[in-house]
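Hi L.,

As promised, MarR family transcriptional regulator:
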Amino acid sequence: MSAPVPQDDVAEIERALSRVAHMLTRFRQHDRTVLAAGVPVDRAAVPLLRALAEHGPMRPGELAARLAVEAPHVTRQVQRLERAGYVELLPDPDDRRCRRVGLSGSGLRAVESIRASGRRWIAEALAGWSPGERERLAGLVHRMVDDFEAHSGHGEDARG
């Protein structure tokens, strides 16, 4: 049995996280980000591209596990992204029968552009914050995500 948690604090954290999640996953926000980045991809493609940029080429099953989605979802996204020239299938050095998904040069440029667009938006939104406040926020958010992952049993450091 776990220790009691101060419910007011937890409720306020949950409320804030719900607001952030909703804001970041809204379709309009995605559209603004990819339009500013000049990268015409759907919302489901962005986490896949980011994962490949952060962790390098991997098998589709590994990619699905990392993103916590079903393998067919990854297969469909990989096919779309391959047709668009953002990813390529590479030989798997551990098993010649398998292929790994990796970013193409175009895919790497797309991820860099999406990241830059997102960072500009964040910088503009937090322009009134001091560098120290932004640094503390980043540290606390990383710590929170690490603790959430450890608690959920994933234990992997999402920062790579």
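Helices lie at 7-25, 27-37, 45-55, 60-67, 71-83, 105-125, 131-152.

Thanks again for sending the construct details.

K.
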